[in-house]
Batch of 4 targets.
Target 1
Amino acid sequence: MSPRLRASAGERRANDLAALGGRIEAALTAALGIGAEEVRAAALAAMPKRSGRLAASLFAEDEFPDLSVAVGTHLAHGRQLEFGTRRMAAKPWLRPALAQTRMTVIAHIRRALDDTIRRAQAGQS
């Protein structure tokens, strides 16, 4: 028989870790949603405004279950402005908005993780 090493944190610890994972996921989802809205607001401020159709089409939505969010538009005009066409120079509005808010979004995520772990260490929900 070959030597084996078995380690177990016990059922209680496993349950605690599972609960912490759920709290972290909820905190990350909330932080990403806040961050997405900040990117959306910056994009609204940066986008060229003519008819208002592009601004009205801008969305920020959660993409479950992979803890991600999407900010953008489904209008072809938005893509054409962002990247340009053969006949029109690019007038980026979404990528600059992301660059402008990137550190704020990261700070939201970091704060959500720190707060959740701190509460778990203190035995709070």
Note: The chain has a mean pLDDT of 87.
Target 2
Amino acid sequence: MSNHINIKTNLLPPPWQELSYAEIMTRPDGQLINGGRASRVYRFIDGKEVCFLKRYTYQKIHWQHCWQKSQVRREFENLQKIKQADLDCNTIEILAYGEQRRCRILIDAFLLSREVTDNERLSLFLGLNHDHPQRQLVVEKVTQLGQRIIESGLAITDLFFRNLVVVPKDANLYLLDVQYCARNRYRAKIKSYPQFWSNILLFFTPDEQNLAAKMLVPHLPYDLKELDTRAQPFIRKETKRKIAELAFIKNNC
């Protein structure tokens, strides 16, 4: 079995700089923040340092990963692309990533990032804070981000509000969990724009939706009616995720 580990050792805070790959994958004292079929996200507090660790464990062979970059490596590289794209949007700071393969078969992987201070997941902020004094500014910044993404020609998959965090006091946005990012207007047309609009329909008020439509639709390759139609398949899936996310927060408060 071979390990491929890429670590920015000069940025790693203690105790992470002293841990081996196996110790990072098995460190037990983290708080479970989010759990999926293949990945778990844990929050670790070490003095003043707070980090998130995403662990991937693959129970079956994913043949596409044998010949492609792993999810953690793609996420690291795509966040670097976004930093260079002048979207006026921050990205989370990734401290390290690593993967373990048997021959070419991906066994597990991790992604370690530093927590954004005073952040809230955008989907939760908009879903739970209808009267927050910063809500209008946050809505405007989210809409402006959508406009800049459209103008850039970038296709970003999973462009959902659960993959953004916001610092409410200054309305700064941070992107995370970007599995695909490339200049591909066709893919953006069929996937990225409808995904983004589906969350506007789920989390914005009707007045906020009207504002977003006025800013975004003139830059899109189709009209509002077609945008609504293309967003519908994503709305059905994202509604289930929204309910599950709110339930998870309620049960873990």
Note: The two ends are 40 Å apart (CA to CA).
Target 3
Amino acid sequence: MRGGRRRGAGPAPDFRAPPGPRRAPARRRRRRPGAPLARLVSGGQAGVDRAALDAALAHGLACGGWCPRGRAAEDGPIDHRYPLRPTAGADPGERTRLNVRDSDGTLILLDGAWDDGTRFTWNIAAALGRPLLVMDLAAPEARSRALLRVLAWARRHRVATLNVAGPRESASPGIHARARDFLDRLLSGDPRGPA
């Protein structure tokens, strides 16, 4: 017996690990650089909510959410170009609960002061144990570090569907424009923003 093998004993044993099931290569969904977000939701109220929907539509990002029955907002019925689903009731708290529940995390954008609706959103997110981040657009960091902070938070919590909330326009005049600017920079992947 030469080489330690008998004639007719079949092929030499293979001592390598057996091959496991073959996996198809993972397909990566194309996303904008720096933006892990796939969808924005909000309640459609004038102010931060509407700024989120406007930014998503401008950047070709999916958007939606829940709004009160009758598409009610402080400035009249919410335009049908915003793809919102009306709740069964007219209570704005119902849409807030549904938007927090149906999202992976909630971003609250403020301009210094809290209003009752924004505080309610914070309480619902905390009660449901959902990821929550509050950014004050009046703070100096809102120019650059805040955008990086939001992106890092969204990645850490794997936020694909982001609920964006904050004060209504009547409670914080000009909040729509400031929130829209912030969200435009966030969705474009440009954390530097204007100089």
Note: The longest helix spans residues 175-188.
Target 4
Amino acid sequence: MPRPRLPLLAVLALLALLALNTACSPAETADRIFLNGVVHTGSEEQPRAEAVAVKDGRVLFVGTSDDARRYAGSTTEVVDLAGKTLLPGLVDSHYHLSGVGNRELTLNLEGTTSIDEFLSKVKARVDQAPPGEWVTGRGWIETHWTPRRFPTRQDLDRVAPNNPVYLTRADGHAGVANSAALRSAGITRSTTPPSGGDILKDGRGEPTGMLIDRAQGLVRQNVPSATEEQQDQAVITGADRSVRLGWTQIQDAGGSWEDVARMRRLYEGGKVKLRIYKAVSGPSASADSLLARGASVGEFDGRFTVRTIKVVFDGALGSRGALLLRPYSDDPGNQGLITTDLERLRPMLQEALRKGIQVEAHAIGDSANRMLLNLFEEAFNAVPEADRSVKDPRWRDEHTQIVDPADIPRFKQLGVIPSMEPSHAIGDLHFAPSRLGMERLAGAYAWQSFIRDGNIIAGGSDAPVERGEPMIEFYAAVARRDTSGFQGEGWHPEQALSREQALKAFTIWPAYAAFEENERGSIEVGKWADFTVLDQDIMTIPEAEILKTRTMMTVINGEIAHQQ
């Protein structure tokens, strides 16, 4: 008896059911699944989701919680986000890792609101030190003091008569020494400041104790060097703090070849989980070492890359060391400082292009930014693409704070990436108008002007100059107000970023600035599984609530590196 034949429609339905069953039974089992979240992927194709599955450190699936459960096996860890917000792993594009660690381990003067509070903290530390022992610290800034003035050696002498003291301003471009510290360096009224530095003096011609930029080295060279163990601990402490705050990668702006060796040793010992994109300072022997050895990309399972040289063109605006085209409005005899050796710099830039080494340059004043663009353009013209190891060098302007509007279009024309720190804008708004006058504020922290020209902005914090907290940076980018809500006259609110732009500034745009946009920066299948989990949705909550948002989890390479 012949078998009954299935109608064609039934055959097609059966085939469809088999296909559906296959789709519902993935061949791969996830190591970890994150369910029931508010997922902002940063992907144009699939901007929102509620679940992510990861395997071997990479994203395996992005979509609904029901579909994600199909990737669960007997060994899969399932994490219920319970409505929390999961973002692509946040990145700080300009960070000083050892500086952050040292700030936490020494005298942290961050947040002092008056000269009296500042001196009280110094005295408390001095009282714990034996006579003659150096006392150092960092983080003070006079912006909110009354009167708004730099501290002096006489101030410090009152609380530290028997100990040499040197305390670095928050920006790192100035510091104050007491009389004992000045004596150790032989600094008197007749001392000539080094090129690229200044020794401030009072009305009688005596040193006030304030040292600007390269003049700081006169005292710093006498401070006892940290031990290897202390330097290790500074890196570990800075990295641990960063992960707790939700950073999955920091881009470490400058340092030495010894720092590179230290970080490698700490990775080998399992002491650091944070991703580090490392630069060394130049022109220098460390920069020469990088040029000779070449870039090293993705060491330690993609966590460590060394491919960048950091150059410093000028000082900082707060200490009046930023190099300006015209004098400071509140110091008419001063236009700031050039802090690099231009004759050594020119051949280094050309060699970097030939060897495929990225260059990032600190430029704050409008003159420094123009100089940077001119020197970069000169190098690009001297080394044609055919002679470059990397055709698209992605050189960077770090800070890009004060730019003459006529120079803004040159960034896109030259392919130079503005790497900017939102928190600088909300801190500097208290003194930038007096330093610059209202007219020059048109090119200050001009985020939207750069974006409208087709640039990306790599967002950072410049910690320990600023606090180095991602929620402060995100808030500053979208609010363009200080943390109390103050903005002030002439602060160009139209330059604030949208929340979508701000998210890109701390995820995919830093990834691009590090040549990693195909590996990280958004939550897409195949990319590294780096996530930051927050207790609130910073894409929708009121601006002021952003500052109250807490990091609940930090995931790096698919592993939970921190959990609240």
Note: DSSP finds 21 helices and 25 strands in the chain.
